[in-house]
Amino acid sequence: MSNNNPPPTIVKCPTCSNAVVWGEVSPYRPFCSKRCQLIDLGEWAEEEKRIAGAPDMSDSDGWSEDH
Predict the structure, then answer these.
(1) pLDDT band at 53, cuts 50/70/90?
(2) Is 16 assigned to a binding site?
(3) What's the domain count of the chain?
């Protein structure tokens, strides 16, 4: 009897680039470990990582809710 299961999806850990199986065997996916997950969280908390977006509107931009 042959095994027709597809091969597991493998991704790189965003922190250390180790191979990680994308599945139940990897509880911290996409990270390889709790350590790498916490390193990434710390980088977000320290604002070393951010998502690009539109610049903030402020009074100096000439924007007002009154207009």
Answers:
(1) confident
(2) yes
(3) 1
What sign results for the dihedral spanned by CA atoms 57, 48, 46, 33? positive
Q: Does the annotation flag 57 for ligand binding?
A: no
Does 1 carry a binding-site annotation? Answer: no
36 is in an annotated binding site: yes
Determine if the pTM surpasses 0.90.
no
Q: Residue 1 domain-assigned?
A: no
Is residue 59 assigned to a domain? Answer: no
- Cα dist. 54→16, 44, 64, 67 in Å? 30, 19, 17, 21
CA pair distance 34, 11, nearest whole angstrom:
16
Of the candidates 24, 21, 5, which has an alpha carbon nearest to the alpha carbon of residue 13? 21
What's the average model confidence in pLDDT over 46-61?
76
Which helix (H) or strand (E) element contains residue 19?
strand 19-21
